[in-house]
Amino acid sequence: MISLLDSEIHFYWFCEMDSWRSILKLYSSGPVLYGDHGKPFVEDTKIHFSVSHSKGRGMIVFSNQEIGVDIEPISRSPQKKEEIANRYFSPPEVSLLKSNASIWPRLWTRREAFYKALGTGINRKWNTINLNEDSLTLGGVRFQIKSFQQDSFEISVVYSSLYPKKMKFLKNS
């Protein structure tokens, strides 16, 4: 089994829909269970993980604290993005999107990763929270938000920040 230091997040790209389960077995042998809103987890382990997939690619991330990840092709921009933004984004994010439409993938992946970290599913009540910032505190828990681009994808990860994180990209062999 691979172990994680408190200061690490491990990232893996994958191409086949179910290959994330094989990668998960590197960290835990327990069965995959699902929370009330569909967040996968493994009981009786300190490992937290999150999975995202889009356009035939996927990513799984591991941490010792709650974590969420989302990936989207950089070129993706839904036709109804203003309607979606008005429903799910904070007012500052909506304004930013109106002035710079190319920021859509970053804003959307941050929001999806945030919901995944919390395990709540998409929820309108969070549209007052500005996720364009690099950190926020919610319910006494500090979350860090990181976004970057790799292989024509926008990737956002949200994690509780008890420790500074060192991000490691590992290859699935």
Strand order of the largest sheet: 4-5-1-10
The percent range for helix content is 10-25%
Question: What is the first-to-last residue Cα distance?
Answer: 14 Å
Flag low-confidence runs: none
Beta-strand content: 25-35%
The SSE order reads EHEEEEEHHHEEEE
Principal-axis shape equals globular
Number of DSSP-assigned strands = 10
Structural class: alpha+beta
The structural domain count equals 1
CATH superfamily: 4'-phosphopantetheinyl transferase domain
What is the radius of gyration?
Answer: 16 Å
CATH architecture verdict: Alpha-Beta Complex
CATH class: Alpha Beta
Q: With helices defined by DSSP (H or I, 4 residues minimum), what is the helix count?
A: 4
CATH topology name, in short, is Ribosomal Protein L22, Chain A
**Largest pleated sheet:** 4 strands, mixed
Keywords:
globular, 10 strands, Ribosomal Protein L22, Chain A, alpha+beta, 173 residues
Task: Give an account of the 3D structure.
- This protein has 173 residues and is α+β, with helices and mostly antiparallel strands.
- It has one domain: Ribosomal Protein L22, Chain A (Alpha-Beta Complex), CATH 3.90.470.
- The protein contains four helices and ten strands; from the N terminus they run E-H-E-E-E-E-E-H-H-H-E-E-E-E.
- It has helices at 19-24, 81-88, 91-99, 104-118, and strands at 8-14, 32-34, 40-42, 48-54, 57-63, 67-73, 135-138, 141-150, 153-160, 166-169.
- Strands 4-5-1-10 form a four-stranded mixed sheet. It has a four-stranded antiparallel sheet with strand order 6-9-8-7. The protein has a two-stranded antiparallel sheet with strand order 2-3.
- A hairpin with a 2-residue loop joins strand 7 and strand 8.
- The longest helix is centred in the middle third of the chain and has 15 residues, at 104-118.
- The protein starts with 7 loop residues before the first strand and ends with a strand.
